[in-house]
Design goal:
By secondary structure, the protein is mostly beta strands. It folds into three domains: 48-123, SoxY domain (Immunoglobulin-like, Sandwich); 133-208, SoxY domain (Immunoglobulin-like), CATH 2.60.40.2470; 229-297, no CATH class. The protein has no helices and 23 strands. It has strands at residues 48-53, 57-59, 64-71, 75-78, 83-84, 90-95, 101-109, 112-123, 133-139, 142-144, 149-156, 160-163, 168-169, 175-180, 186-194, 197-208, 229-233, 236-241, 248-251, 253-256, 275-278, 281-285, 294-297. A five-stranded mixed beta sheet has the order 2-8-7-4-5, with no helix packed on it. A five-stranded mixed beta sheet has the order 10-16-15-12-13, with no helix packed on it. A three-stranded antiparallel beta sheet has the order 1-3-6, with no helix packed on it. A hairpin with a 4-residue loop joins strand 4 (75-78) and strand 5 (83-84). The protein is rod-shaped and about 145 Å long.
């Protein structure tokens, strides 16, 4: 009996698709070579794709980078408005979804297609911080030089508050007060700063000169006879308070001298200002009623 030994050509251990040549050696002392066509299932390296993002969670209005890689693919496309990409094997693009979105990539190769995906979660951004506000007031708003005024402030949405004119940052940014003694009219400006920005407020303190001191005058501690000169004419008294004399209070009396007799005070004439205070200068005083032979003394 003839013995036949067969073995596969070494190419049969390779991975490929399509016709190939098979060498069969028949042991008869000679070799016979022939060609056959066979279909061998493909076990080629599988085509694949991968999608990734630089940030999987973003705030609305923000962006993220979408990146991909493929293996043994002839084309690659991504849904949600991205479309076919120019660089199939690897690449990236920027996306700005307005809501949570899943991006699906489709890689097409010789043996078919495969998909890969990645999701970008979109969150609602927090509201912007509120802008700070402040008020600054002075009480009183007008002082005499050498006096003081109280500055008061109040803020909202502020983490710090400072005032110019060498006051600087205050300890309590929310509210507080400080005494100031400007020597000239001064405007104080406060600056409130917070996460929402900064703002200013101001208050002005008007400084006026103090009033002049009262004039120096002399006070008489005794009767003014001889100090104040006056005269009486027809019951009208005219007198002069000299300059430099403090205002003085004067009283007037009148009497009748018939036959040298002095009448008691009950007989005196009433003057319209029997007691009054007179400043330096010339003054005239008349009676309320007159009587015959009456004389008025100062």
């Amino acid at each position: 009996m003839k013995k036949i030994i067969t073995y596969a050509h070494k190419n049969l251990s390779s991975t490929f698709v399509g016709p190939f040549t098979v060498l069969l050696e028949v042991v008869f002392g000679f070799s016979l070579i022939f060609t056959a066509s066979m279909l061998v299932p493909s076990h080629a390296r599988a085509w694949s794709c991968a999608l990734s993002v630089s940030a999987s969670t973003i705030n609305g209005g923000s962006s993220t980078t979408l990146s991909w890689t493929t293996v043994d693919s002839t084309s690659f496309s991504i849904n949600n408005g991205v479309g076919a990409v120019a660089s199939v094997s690897a690449g990236s693009t920027t996306v700005s979804p307005t809501k949570t979105t899943t991006y699906v990539g489709t890689a097409v190769g010789a043996g078919g297609s495969v998909t890969c995906e990645v999701t970008v979660t979109v969150t609602t951004p927090p509201p912007p911080p509120s802008a700070p506000t402040c008020t600054l007031s002075a009480s009183p708003t007008a002082i005499q030089k050498g006096s003081s005024s109280m500055l008061s402030w109040a803020t909202a949405n502020a983490t710090s508050f400072s005032i110019n004119q060498s006051i600087g940052a205050v300890t309590s940014a929310v509210s507080g007060s400080k005494s100031v003694s400007p020597t000239t009219t001064t405007t104080y400006t406060g600056t409130a700063t917070g996460s929402g920005g900064s703002t200013t407020c101001s208050a002005t303190v008007t400084v006026t000169a103090p009033p002049p001191p009262p004039p120096t005058c002399h006070t008489y501690s005794v009767a003014v006879d001889g100090k104040i000169k006056g005269s009486v004419n027809k019951n009208v008294a005219t007198f002069t308070i000299p300059a430099g004399v403090c205002p003085v209070e004067l009283s007037f009396s009148s009497y009748n001298l018939p036959n040298g007799t002095i009448y008691p005070l009950t007989k005196q004439v009433l003057y319209d200002n029997i007691t009054n205070t007179y400043a330096p200068g010339t003054h005239t005083v008349g009676p309320l009623k007159l009587a015959c032979n009456w004389q008025t003394d100062l």
